[in-house]
Amino acid sequence: MSDDKIIHFNPWRDFNDAAPLPDPFAVEPDPAQIARFVDVVFGYSEGLIPVRSFVDKGQGKDGRPHNIWIDATGAAPDKLATFAAWGAREGAAVYVIPGTVAETGQARAADVLQMQSVVVDLDAGDIPAKLDHLVHHIGRPTLIVESGGRTADGATKLHVWWKLTEPAEGADLARLCQLRGDIALKVGGDMHFRSAHQPIRVPGTVYHKGGQERLVLIREASDLEFDLADMLERAGEMPPMPGVGMATAEPREKPGVDAALITPVREGGQDAWTRFEGVSMAIGHYVRMAHEGRMSREEAWRAIGEYNAAMIRPNWPEDRLWVEYERLWSLHIARNGPPLIRNDGAPAAREIATFTLGALLDDGTPMPDDIIGPRVLTPGGMLVLGGAPKVGKSDLVISWLVHMAAGVPFLGFTPPRPLRVFYLQAEIQYHYLRERMQQIGLPPEVMAAARENLVVTPKLKLLLDAGGSALVAQAIQQAFPAEPVDILCIDPIRNLFDGGPDGGGENDNAAMMFFLKDRVEVLRDHVNPDCGIVLIHHTKKLSKHQVKEDPFLALSGASALRGFYTSGLILHRPDEDASERKLEIELRNGPALPSKLIEKVRGQWVEINPMNERLVRAEVGAKHDAERMRKHDVILGLLYEEARRGKLYTLAQFSEAFENTGGLGGRTIVHDRLSVLATKGKVKFIRGAAATRIGLAAERSKYGYLCVEGMLFGTGGETVDPDTGEVTPELIPALPSHYKCPQTGAVLPVENPSVWVYQEEDEA
């Protein structure tokens, strides 16, 4: 067959070259909406706009991500619209980072130079209610964008934008990102927008997820612009939504930290979480560890680097890792207060200080001054005061701290100067604390000297955990901004105890050591490494014999406490029926101190001479003391009543007349009791002319007639009241003329019969 008879279809039936027929159901990008978006998000900015595109999931298509950078100029809307048209044909979503960078290839948070808008992504929960909350408290937004997604309940997910009056740079850029995170936190929005490089869908482009094509649509637009400082103020005043706010609205469950630290993560979102999420969780974990003082910042950074090398595939560049670490550290400080860094500045293991015996023997430098002498509380030391409930611990502690703040000795404990004292107490509420402070019976000059040096908290409702420690540290630094605190008193341990991650109680030795080392000592090191710690603690019930043998066994909780403190004090009652308390003292840094017998007298704690304390058979001795006092009262009462009936007695006559009367015992016992009363000045004598004046016969005894204070003598006559006519026995005062000298036992004349003098008071 010749060639001229061959019919060629290609020239006029080439279907590959023919223009495709338009799909009447296809969703096309909207250049007008893209242009409006670019104006709101980049209209005032300079630099490059990072644009990213990748195939939406659920279409059965594969494709690699595409990244371009567009100059933020007047041509940006057209270039972005062209890229969106390509993305629509390929089933790819179009995202931008809502900020500009300096060079092509840059898209990290640290690369973002300018941002001129605030956005919140509402992708879960009651989205209309969240939008109403934002409009009410922040203001009507510049753009409300339907992102294309739907919640499980079918609600439309929204991006809400507020355009700023000018781009934010530098410190303002960090404030803007913090603002985005705070707003999302309060309404349950997407918390990823705390980061400057979080990408977001472009309105006017096509959403393809799950094979459902929708236009990312601008639902509402306005020309409103906002000042960043004004937005910060509004967001700060905005309350969290009830039941929603202060929690992330991320619908997907995040992995636990333990799982994240041991699970490799690949790029491209191939795993259960992204590389960014894995790195963020690891950095957040080690930031918290460093903030709580469980490792130094250098150790935290080293651990983050090890995680990046072992689990992130491919690894993040070190400079990017450092920027993210610094960002999360700053955010954590802003939210949780100053860190309690224990290991920063501490010598490493290779720098442990060592001294030879010779060096120690030759060191003649002066010893540091005691915070409370003698060696009761030394610089950097810890004192534990224990006592049973209602024994008077808090009252004693308050008086003690007031004296220390005034620079005045207390019960033999001496401060070198007025001390700055922070009293962290968690038992007494404000009004009762105020009442107790106003009722302290201390001299006015002591109270005046302590007014500014003693700072007290009312009853606290917190644990001394990482957050509580940071709050306490901040309160201490605010109370004493110029000079560091000298004494930190924690009252009681039980109400503030934090046993650490395992949640152990105060009876657990490991939990107690965690509390002392990782909470109390870290707090002390943060506010002043040389300040003294005073811990108030409860005691358990022990027999009196056990208390006598080793009073410090009575401390409640774990035995590790006793091995940790430098000084221990136990306050207890030797006799439950007596008002005296005993203060047992145990020192690590000084010579032993004898126990103190103390009592509260007229509002002040005073020390009682220990020589007055009965050591043997104290209870039996106390009963004998009470019986002697009873006999004394009976004798004095009998002398007084007999005198009113006109009967006075010599010492021997009374002993014989009242033998076995009123339980006084035999004649000798009565005679001895009278002799004791005479020596003490409670019984005196009438003899010689003084006896004759009241009509008594002359006596032959050594002392004369017995006399007590206020005694009246019945003469046997009667008196008639001129007004009433009442007849009463005639009574005349019986005044002493002599007394028994307590030193020699001699009978001496009294100086003034009208003034009764007790020898015990003279001695006192």
Strand order of the largest sheet: 16-15-17-18-14-19-20-21-22
Q: Which whole number gives the mean pLDDT? A: 84
Label the structural class.
Answer: alpha/beta
SS field, number of helical segments: 24
**Cα radius of gyration in angstroms:** 45 Å
Give the beta-strand count.
28
Helix amount, in percent? 25-40%
* N-to-C span: 151 Å
Largest sheet: 9 strands, mixed
Task: List segments where confidence is low: pLDDT < 50 over at least 5 consecutive residues.
Answer: 1-16, 246-252, 343-350
Hey, roughly how much beta strand do the residues contain? Answer: 15-25%
CA-based shape: elongated
Protein name: AAA family ATPase
Pfam families: AAA_25
Organism: Plastorhodobacter daqingensis
Structure description:
This protein has 764 residues and is of the alpha/beta class. The protein is 35% helix and 19% strand. It has 24 helices and 28 strands. The strands form eight sheets. A nine-stranded mixed sheet has the order 16-15-17-18-14-19-20-21-22, sandwiched between helices. Strands 4, 5, 6, 10 and 11 form a five-stranded mixed sheet that branches. A four-stranded antiparallel sheet has the order 2-1-3-7, covered by helices on one side. A hairpin with an 8-residue loop joins strand 20 (581-587) and strand 21 (596-601). Helix 8 packs across helix 10 (318-336). The longest helix is centred in the C-terminal third of the chain and has 27 residues, at 618-644. Mean pLDDT is 84; it is low at 1-16, 246-252 and 343-350.
